[in-house]
Write a structure and sequence with these properties.
By secondary structure, the chain is of the alpha+beta class. Helix content is about 30%, strand content about 25%. This is HTH cro/C1-type domain-containing protein.
C-alpha cells in the first residue's frame, strides 16, 4: 500500500524525535557533570555505545533509554522529547554524583537547564577534579560559600553572589567550609551563548 501523506508525516515525526535523543542524552550528562565513564559504570552500557547514542550513530531503544533515564533520574518522556501533557510542573528527582546532590529544575533537553546543587562540607567531600565541556554556566550561591576554580585561579563566591563562566575552561566547584554544605542555583546552556536579560 502506498504511503499516504499522513503516514509520511508520522514517519518524519518519529525520525525527528529519535534524532533529538542524542543531544538530549548529552545535555543531561553534561548538566550533571558526569563523564561517559561515570554513566557507563552506573548504567552498564559501554562507553562506545553511549558515545554513538549521543552522536546519533546508534538508534535508541528502550533497552538503552530505560537505564539512562534511571541514571539521570528523569522521566523517559524527557529523554525522547514527548509532547507536553499540559502539566507545567517539573517532577523533581534529586541525584547524587561524587558527593554533590543535583536537583533538576527543568525538563531534560531544555535550551537552558536549571538545577540546584548541594555541595557537601569539605570534611566529607571527595577532592574536586577539573572538568571541561562545551557550554556556558551561571551560578548563584543561595547558602554558604563555594570555591570556584577556573583553570589555575580559585575564587571564593559567597551567599548572595553570582558567577558566570565558559565551561570549556577547566573548572571545579566545592563548598568553602569544612563543616557546612553550600547550596547553589545554576543555569547551564550547551549553546555556549551568554544569557541576555532585557531590562524593563
Amino acid at each position: 500500500m502506498p504511503i499516504t501523506p499522513t503516514d509520511d508525516q508520522l514517519v518524519h515525526d518519529t525520525e525527528a524525535v529519535l534524532g533529538s535523543v542524542g543531544p538530549r542524552l548529552r545535555d543531561a550528562r553534561r548538566a550533571r557533570r558526569m563523564t561517559l565513564a561515570d554513566v557507563a559504570e552506573r548504567s552498564g552500557i559501554s562507553i562506545s555505545t553511549l558515545s554513538r547514542l549521543e552522536g546519533g550513530r546508534r538508534r535508541p531503544n528502550l533497552d538503552l533509554l530505560l537505564p539512562l533515564a534511571h541514571v539521570y533520574q528523569v522521566a523517559l518522556d524527557d529523554l525522547v522529547g514527548a509532547p507536553p501533557t499540559g502539566d507545567p510542573r517539573v517532577h523533581v528527582r534529586p541525584i547524587r554524583n561524587n558527593g554533590t546532590t543535583f536537583v533538576p529544575l527543568t525538563r531534560g533537553g531544555a535550551p537552558v537547564e536549571a538545577f540546584k546543587m548541594v555541595l557537601p562540607p569539605l570534611r566529607i567531600a571527595p577532592k574536586p577534579s577539573l572538568r571541561r565541556h562545551g557550554g556556558y554556566e551561571w551560578l548563584y550561591v543561595l547558602t554558604g560559600a563555594i570555591d570556584l576554580t577556573l583553570g589555575t585561579a580559585t575564587t571564593r563566591v559567597s551567599a548572595g553572589e553570582a558567577a558566570e563562566f565558559d565551561t570549556r575552561i577547566p573548572h571545579a566547584l566545592s563548598s568553602a567550609a569544612h563543616d557546612a554544605a553550600a547550596e547553589v542555583l545554576a543555569l547551564f546552556s550547551t549553546s555556549g551563548e551568554r544569557l541576555h536579560v532585557r531590562q524593563c
